[in-house]
Design brief:
The complex is a heterodimer of chains A (319) and B (513).
Chain A (H helix, E strand, L loop, with lengths): L1 H18 L13 E5 L6 H17 L3 E5 L6 H10 L6 E7 L1 H8 L11 E16 L7 H10 L5 E5 L4 H13 L4 E5 L5 H6 L5 E5 H6 L4 E6 L24 E8 L5 H22 L5 E5 L1 H25 L1
Parallel strand pairs in A: 1-2, 1-3, 5-6, 5-7
Antiparallel strand pairs in A: 3-9, 4-7, 4-8, 4-9, 4-10
Helix pairs in contact in A: 2-9, 4-10
Chain B lengths: L1 H10 L2 H19 L5 H8 L8 H26 L8 H12 L3 H36 L2 H12 L1 H5 L4 H15 L2 E2 L6 E2 L13 H20 L13 H15 L2 H15 L4 H16 L11 H17 L1 H7 L5 H12 L13 H35 L2 H20 L2 H19 L4 H24 L14 H25 L3 H11 L1
Helix pairs in contact in B: 1-17, 2-4, 2-17, 3-4, 3-16, 4-5, 4-6, 4-14, 4-16, 4-17, 5-6, 5-14, 6-11, 6-12, 6-14, 6-15, 6-17, 7-20, 7-21, 9-20, 10-18, 10-19, 10-20, 12-13, 12-14, 13-14, 18-19
Classes of the chains: A alpha/beta (319), B mainly alpha (513).
């Protein structure tokens, strides 16, 4: 109880402090930084933030408080952040692609815009992976594609969320391979292992991490990365197999637009250094560490927007 | 066996026991605060475990989990407010007991039931993890649909008096659950252009609003505290504990049934503790010789609810540790911790790192045992505070804690407004006889049923008659029959009574029971 109280008191003081005009930026950072995760505790974003927290604190020399603002697949937290956060460098929020691209296109009013903030860095990606049950009739991706061609819609692929990285991955596979599969959205990654092992779906489109986690109980047919995922050395990429599908989720962190450049740089360096330190722990889990900053951020977003926009527009027209 | 002994010794250190004790105590108080759930308790305390060794960290979290699930019972019994969603069913009989001056009896029963439940869950996990884990994967979308419907039949038994009003409440709850981004399909529904509503109405927010606020309003209106002050214990606390112990172990069938139900539901991914206690309560009522006494202060209801939800703590680790499937939301955090320490769920966990895993499991057993002293002592303390504090201090304090708890849940003022709005509406609904319980039930189960149904229909898109998929395999047929049976056993007596054949039914029941 005391703990919860101190947290409240802490955030109240922080709010009061942020309200004060004329904070000197010269010695940034000199107060605790709030790091909002717009998802539930326990997910990939949260686990990563937990990995980062102690290192960020050590590097920046101030407390970094991770808090959660889940809802609407991240949209609730993002819309609140774009509307309310101050560009002081003391408030930052986790951002995910393709969520921040897809939601504003697909929803009437997601409450935020894809570009209305300064993305500090994308620190890792988790490529999509196509996973089938261990006793599945599909030994390779070709088996699955061949079967799907003969039996339209009969192959059911589960995944996390709608118009999420997983869903878009499945849609791209349909386009690339000229097949028609049935995508079954699940809420989050949690229920997917059971769906595969219980043979409730023909396979799942999820992240490489789950492929690593389920090595003993399932077969990974392909991963959607440029090069093979270090933790899954025997699994071919879609590219190797002749399908131009590279994608998955990118996770990063953003600050409000107008945050001074030197502050953004400080954060950028802190995250890059943190990434180096936690790579040893995260890579074996199936994460692919990246350090995408500045111009590259826009490049990645543009590139993926071009890849996803026609798929999304088409889906929206069909709704 | 060696591994088990080694694990036992590794936790039987002063440091280990203090960790468990501190974890249980912290969990208990966080769980007792409405709005702070077991998941939150784990998330908040997680950073503190970073400095600990993997085993100690897991021990602390397991203890917090155990304490938090149990702590929800305190507020459920004393102020009719489930501290965590898994103690909703505890309010049904716990609070009426408290109003009759039997609060401490209810607390003692909840404590003993939780301790036994916790230990039985650990036993299941230690002895039967691999075969039980296989059960976890057989529940697909169609089965989940039927499990949710089975839970919804509980509405009938909750609505003592008017079935129609109960059903109305259930429907209101299901409608509320559709607000926000749809679980399957991702469309936004009923958000009226307000981005904050994309997140929907969080269950806990509704829970606090619908249970606490109406209770506070009636207390204020009647100028009374939560409990009658005259609630003197008959023969003191010790006698109450002894009486409850004898009651529970004298006829253990209720306890055993609730524990088995708790274990089965705990391993179904996506059902979790919210559903376990509801189903266990419903079955306790169904099998009781005197179902009409439920909801009016029957201690068996408290026992069923609290034993089943504490079985879930260790029970939901079965699919988590063996297959990496979190059985309940707090397990997702435990999974994160395992991964953080480089531990991958699977058989390796029981062989290569067996000492660690077994230590973690055993520590949950110790945590369950610690509930007894901590709970009985803490229970007396909280009981005294609630009874002795004048209502004009108690009510504002509860209101304050409620609002802070609601805000802390998702750091959201929107949630506070929704909570207050639902609370006010809930008060008037209660005046016309629509209770909070069926509404909340509709909210919890509406989502599960929707997901199950839509996913089944999607999978069946190539079938000529898609809905046949709902009964395509033996398990779903069994579940569907249970639903029909459950509806029939609730509706038949009423129907027979109206058609003037009630006397006959009564005598039949006497023969069979």
């Amino acid at each position: 109880m005391t703990l919860a109280t101190t947290r409240w008191v802490g955030s109240l003081t922080l709010m009061a402090a942020l309200g004060m005009p004329g904070i000197a930026f010269a010695e940034y950072p000199e107060q605790p930084i709030t790091y909002t995760i717009p998802f539930d505790p326990g997910g990939e974003s949260d686990v990563t933030a937990r990995f980062q927290e102690p290192h960020l604190e050590e590097i920046l020399g101030v407390d970094v408080n991770v808090n959660h603002r889940p809802g609407g697949g991240g949209a609730v937290g993002w819309s609140e952040f774009q509307n309310n956060a101050e560009p002081t460098g003391y408030e930052m929020i986790g951002v995910n692609i393709p969520h921040i691209i897809a939601q504003p296109i697909m929803r009437e009013n997601a409450g935020y815009e894809t570009d209305n903030w300064k993305i500090v860095t994308f620190f890792h990606t988790t490529p999509n992976a196509l996973i089938v049950p261990k006793d599945s009739q599909f030994e390779t991706l070709d088996d699955l594609v061949k079967y799907a061609k003969e039996n339209p819609q009969a192959v059911t692929l589960g995944g996390s969320g709608t118009f999420s990285a997983n869903h878009l991955g499945a849609l791209r596979l349909e386009r690339e391979a000229g097949i028609d599969v049935t995508y079954i959205p699940f809420t989050g990654t949690g229920p997917l292992p059971a769906a595969v092992q219980g043979n409730h779906v023909s396979g799942i489109f999820n992240y490489s991490m789950l492929g690593v986690q389920m090595q003993d109980n399932a077969r990974v047919l392909a991963v959607a990365s440029e090069e093979r995922v270090p933790a899954l050395p025997d699994v071919p990429t879609f590219k190797e197999l002749g399908y131009d599908i590279v994608g998955g989720a990118y996770r990063g962190v953003a600050v409000p637009k107008g945050t001074p450049d030197d502050i953004v740089n400080t954060l950028e360096e802190a995250f890059a250094e943190t990434n180096k330190r936690i790579a040893e722990k995260q890579e074996p889990l199936g994460f692919v560490m990246t350090d995408i900053t500045d111009g590259e951020v826009d490049e990645v977003i543009q590139q993926l927007k071009t890849a996803y926009q026609p798929i999304l527009e088409e889906a929206k027209a069909n709704q | 066996m060696d591994m088990l002994l080694e694990a036992l010794f590794s936790i039987l250190t002063l440091e280990g026991l203090v960790t468990i004790l501190a974890g249980v105590t912290a969990g208990l108080f966080i769980g007792a605060l409405p709005g702070l759930t077991a998941t939150m308790a784990l998330a908040v305390l997680l950073p503190f475990t970073f400095t600990m060794s993997p085993l100690q960290g897991l021990m602390a979290l397991g203890a917090v989990y155990m304490g938090a699930i149990y702590g929800g019972a305190f507020t459920a019994i004393l102020i009719n407010t489930p501290g965590t969603p898994s103690s909703i069913a505890t309010t049904f009989d716990g609070y009426p007991m408290a109003r009759q001056g039997r609060a401490y009896e209810a607390l003692a029963a909840a404590t003993i039931a939780s301790v036994v439940g916790g230990i039985i869950g650990v036993a299941f996990l230690l002895l039967l993890a691999p075969p039980l884990a296989r059960l976890a994967v057989v529940f697909g979308p169609a089965e989940m649909f039927w499990v949710a419907l089975l839970g919804l039949t509980l509405v009938a038994s909750l609505s003592s008096g008017s079935l129609l009003k109960g059903l109305l409440g259930g429907c209101i709850g299901m409608l509320l659950s559709t607000i926000g981004v749809s679980p399957i399909g991702g469309e936004t529904r009923f958000i009226f252009g307000i981005p904050a509503l994309q997140g929907g109405i969080e269950l806990i927010v509704a829970l606090i609003g619908l249970f606490v606020i109406p209770e506070l309003i009636s207390m204020a209106a009647q100028g009374r505290g939560a409990l009658p002050e005259s609630g003197k214990l008959q023969g003191g606390a010790g006698a109450a504990i002894g009486r409850m112990g004898r009651h529970i172990f004298g006829k253990p069938i209720n306890l055993i049934r609730s524990c088995i139900i708790g274990q089965i539901i705990a391993i179904i991914p996506g059902a979790g503790g919210n559903v376990t206690s509801l189903v266990a309560y419903n079955e306790a009522r169904r099998f009781s010789k005197d179902p009409s006494s439920f909801g009016k202060g029957n201690v068996d209801g408290v026992i069923a609810s609290e034993s089943s939800n504490n079985v879930m703590v260790a029970g939901s680790m079965v699919p988590l540790l063996t297959l990496g499937i979190p059985g309940a939301p707090p397990d997702a955090i435990i999974l994160g911790v395992l991964l953080m320490h480089g531990l991958r769920p699977g058989l390796d966990l029981f062989t290569e790192t067996g000492v660690l895993t077994n230590g973690f499991i055993l520590s949950m057993g110790f945590a369950a045992m610690f509930l007894l002293p901590v709970g009985l002592l803490g229970g007396r303390l909280i009981h005294r505070v609630v009874v002795k504090t004048p209502f004009y201090f108690l009510l504002p304090s509860i209101a304050m804690v409620t609002i802070l708890g609601t805000y802390a849940l998702r750091n959201s003022m929107t949630d506070v407004f929704i909570m207050l709005l639902l609370g006010t509406v809930g008060y008037f609904l209660r005046l016309i006889g629509i209770q909070a319980a069926p509404i909340v039930l509709g909210m919890i189960l509406g989502v599960i049923a929707e997901k199950g149904y839509v996913q089944t229909m999607l999978v069946a898109v190539v079938d000529p008659i898609p809905w046949l998929r709902l009964v395509a395999n033996p398990l779903s047929i069994v579940l569907a029959c249970l639903v029909v049976l459950s509806v029939a056993t609730t509706l038949l007596p009423g129907w027979l009574e109206r058609s003037g054949r009630m006397a006959k039914v009564d005598s039949d029941e006497e023969k069979t029971s």
